Amino acid sequence: MQSENHKKTIYAAILGAGTVGTGVYKLCQEMKSEFVQKTGADLVVKKVLVRNASKKREGIEDAVLTDNWKEIIEDPEIDIVIEVMGGIEPAKTYIIEALEAGKQIVTANKDLLAEHGQEVMAAAEKAGADLEFEAAVAGAIPIIRPLKQSMAGNRISEVMGIVNGTTNYILTKMSEKGMDYAEALAQATELGYAEADPTADVEGYDAGRKMAIMASIAFNSRVTFPQVYTEGITKISADDIRYAKEFGYVIKLLGLARNTPEGIEVKVHPMLIDENHPLAGVKDAFNAVFVHADAMDDAMFMGRGAGQMPTASAVMGDVVDVMRNLVYNCCGRVGCSCYKQLPVKQIGETKSKFFLRIHAQDKPGVLANIASVLGNNGVSIAQVVQKSRKGGIAELVIITDEVQENNFNDAMTIFSGMSVVKEISGVIRVY
Amino acid sequence: MQSENHKKTIYAAILGAGTVGTGVYKLCQEMKSEFVQKTGADLVVKKVLVRNASKKREGIEDAVLTDNWKEIIEDPEIDIVIEVMGGIEPAKTYIIEALEAGKQIVTANKDLLAEHGQEVMAAAEKAGADLEFEAAVAGAIPIIRPLKQSMAGNRISEVMGIVNGTTNYILTKMSEKGMDYAEALAQATELGYAEADPTADVEGYDAGRKMAIMASIAFNSRVTFPQVYTEGITKISADDIRYAKEFGYVIKLLGLARNTPEGIEVKVHPMLIDENHPLAGVKDAFNAVFVHADAMDDAMFMGRGAGQMPTASAVMGDVVDVMRNLVYNCCGRVGCSCYKQLPVKQIGETKSKFFLRIHAQDKPGVLANIASVLGNNGVSIAQVVQKSRKGGIAELVIITDEVQENNFNDAMTIFSGMSVVKEISGVIRVY
């Protein structure tokens, strides 16, 4: 029921006036009359928190800039705090203080949620407040709301995603143009898709944080970033991509979260997926999330995973939702959904298929030798192709059946001690 | 704020025990404990309305079956009415009576919403009640909630979708197996993808109803089914598909809704789309909706558009949402979003590119003649290829630039009166 004395004007503060903050401010101005129609209330940005309030900001009125957090936290008129500053601190402190002061939160902060989600969600729960974070995962793509609400009638068993645009851009260029990793990274950097220090992207940390958040929601059980196995794309070669293509696969950096009877698996690593899988067609800087659940079967969500306005779009969807809750006096109606406590598996306990390339001495009995090492460790071979023979060295490409990772690693350890095996390369999992 | 005296048990009634109704009942039982965790309340299906209450229903307790609407409408304990009987009447009367009796509605009824949406939404608004209908469009795919909520910070300019699984299955088989229309339809019927009378699917009516609903929400202005131009797939030939492929296109039955400065365009017709467009890869009975908006840019949502459990999944997402609203006493918080009154264009006023095949006399001057008729009517040619010459007849395949449909039709009328033009076939729009 709409409260009789509901607020006609809702005041918000934006923390951070970087790319995303400026985009959010812009949408608050441009969509003003639409928001009134959609929610019955007028949205006014009263303050924008910045480090240096005397510095001019393109597109933001000087009067709203402040470098004093107290002007926000102590202002009882401000109902919504939009945190788009990023990083753990001071964002975490600000969010918790704002919740304690009775304010609602919209945040785009994946680092914070993937590591301290429990603490901030508990603070929101205690305050009976909204804490919404659609923008923290996969930019503009609506995925948090679908997972929490639209799919509430399902048991979700798998969430798989291309949730890092930088690495998807690099792999797309390697695949389409035959570039090697360094060249594709250089191009991504030049175009602004990769940061000066690309570590968080190319090593899979950024994707891992998003997977921790999605797994927590999909399986109703907390997964934190340190529990996510991550492996990046820096070792993927043009050869790997070419060979994969010959087998009908493309290579993507995939986040994979599964709910199994023995526990939750969450990992990020390069993976060969069938060229006909919907995720295989997701190119350049686009993101996509593929979900399998018992009732709805398969669904996929694709869109812009980053960028000023796409991220601001996701933030504003949440802001409008919070405005509706304020108007109807029902903040906190969709709270933390981690009501189970499921174990999270170690990577070695999970199962995968593997693609690998082995350079070995080209003499009788070597293939039998390699096959028996695999067999003795429980690794069965699905496909094997001899790619080349030169200078007494044969190159074998092997795709295994599904195997427990510990067993596979044992076989790799034995290979590394065998004189006939010259090199193991391109060890990539297969979906 | 959660109401202190919030209901610990929420009673629902399901109208209809067909395929979807049985699926909904099943999820209500199977997910019982999850719903308590998600909403804080227990969901109990108290009644299932059927025509013949003495007939046994597999999976539904006899005790809840009733053929008496009064047992539902007059039961003050029942808070949620889940309408999955389909058709305009008596569904419409039941929904309006239920709203007047203070109940919340979840419905999967696209026919009703596409034709009488305004009336039922007004009744919900008057009652301050929820009326949710995610399952009415594109089955399990979350699209109503994303359009209404997640994208609230955007101005949406285009919604394009493959929203009918039957026709997508038929076109996929025609494209992949070279089947003609009749053969592919026969296979779809045999597999249960097409109904005994496939008219609503193959003529685009089903897709047209879904597009009316999506356009209304996306553009915040009511569009009803009679305002949607529909054209089916019955005239698509194996030749059309083969030629389209040669030009790098696939043929899909697309729903297309655009918000232009001159008004809203909503149409359903076969269309050539680039083979690299994400919608081109949506195969068999899958549905997908592609949305373009100013802030988020492009997004696509793909999944099962029909079927018992996928549809039940969408219904239950809404039921859980309504349960949360009941617990927090905030029903009606997301109401009708048609707060504008935009004109809807006639099909002749819209612009399209066209693909067409012309069989004409193979003699000097005929191409010039054809080209000048097009030119005189404002139709410019983007591509033209002469496909064959035999028996004094040449086959031309033409792709035009974008042209107002009225102008294009004028040219076609002139062709039909020209003795050198023997046949015009395969007139299909191009995205």
Radius of gyration of chain A: 25 Å
So, the CATH homologous superfamily of the largest domain in chain A? NAD(P)-binding Rossmann-like Domain
Helix percentage of chain A: 25-40%
Detail the poorly predicted runs of chain A: none
- Strand content bin of chain A: 25-35%
Number of domains of chain A: 3
What is the subunit organization of this protein?
A: homodimer
- Which CATH class of the largest domain in chain A is shown? Alpha Beta
CATH topology of the largest domain in chain A: Rossmann fold
How many angstroms separate the termini of chain A? Answer: 48 Å
Which whole number gives the mean pLDDT of chain A?
A: 95
Query: Could you say which overall geometry of chain A the principal axes of the C-alpha atoms support?
Result: elongated
Q: Please identify the structural class of chain A as seen in this structure.
A: alpha/beta
What is the count of β-strands of chain A? 17
Hey, which two chains have the biggest interface?
A-B, 62 and 62 residues
User: Could you say what the CATH architecture of the largest domain in chain A is?
Assistant: 3-Layer(aba) Sandwich
Q: How would you sum up the major sheet of chain A?
A: 11 strands, mixed
EC number (chains A, B): 1.1.1.3
Family (chains A, B): Belongs to the homoserine dehydrogenase family.
Keywords (chains A, B): Amino-acid biosynthesis, Methionine biosynthesis, NADP, Oxidoreductase, Threonine biosynthesis
Protein name (chains A, B): Homoserine dehydrogenase
